[in-house]
Amino acid sequence: MENSREVYDVVVVGAGIEGSATAYHLAKSGKHVLLVDQSRITRKAYGPQDFYTRMMDEAYRLTEVLQAECGEQLFIKCGTLVFGRYDDPFTVGTEDCLRRFNVPFEKFGSAEQRRRYPGMEFPKDFTFVLDKTGGVLRADKMLQAFQVGTNGSQDLNCICKEE
């Protein structure tokens, strides 16, 4: 990923039809727009759902194996931030789940959020939970690795064809 300090008026996540149309019209109206696609945010906890955290342990391990096989960086560990009011069930559940499964995380308030992320504004009563194991999956590279592995391996009994 490129390390850029460029500032955008709007970031549109998802370059499908609707995301692309949104970015197009915003740009036409004079906004400085960043359109992001082919990556997916991933994290170890999703609210209070324990099964998700257990599943993600296996998914992270399998991603490491695929990275080693294809020689490409498929996962960029940069952390993921969950936020909400101090009593928000999703945010509280995420913190509880990370704690239960001993996943490294940080919890902080609005003053620390403003220091770390000065370009983002939130209500002062928000709390923030940073899952230090989270990051970005490079979906385009992962698909390519799966498809090349499927088509190029003698060990797999699977062929990928485009119609």
UniProtKB/TrEMBL annotation:
<keyword id="KW-0285">Flavoprotein</keyword>
<keyword id="KW-0560">Oxidoreductase</keyword>
<dbReference type="InterPro" id="IPR045170">
    <property type="entry name" value="MTOX"/>
</dbReference>
<dbReference type="Pfam" id="PF01266">
    <property type="entry name" value="DAO"/>
</dbReference>
<keyword id="KW-0274">FAD</keyword>
<comment type="similarity">
    <text>Belongs to the MSOX/MTOX family.</text>
</comment>
<feature type="domain" description="FAD dependent oxidoreductase">
    <location>
        <begin position="9"/>
        <end position="146"/>
    </location>
</feature>
<protein>
    <submittedName>
        <fullName>SOX-like protein</fullName>
    </submittedName>
</protein>
<dbReference type="InterPro" id="IPR036188">
    <property type="entry name" value="FAD/NAD-bd_sf"/>
</dbReference>
<dbReference type="InterPro" id="IPR006076">
    <property type="entry name" value="FAD-dep_OxRdtase"/>
</dbReference>
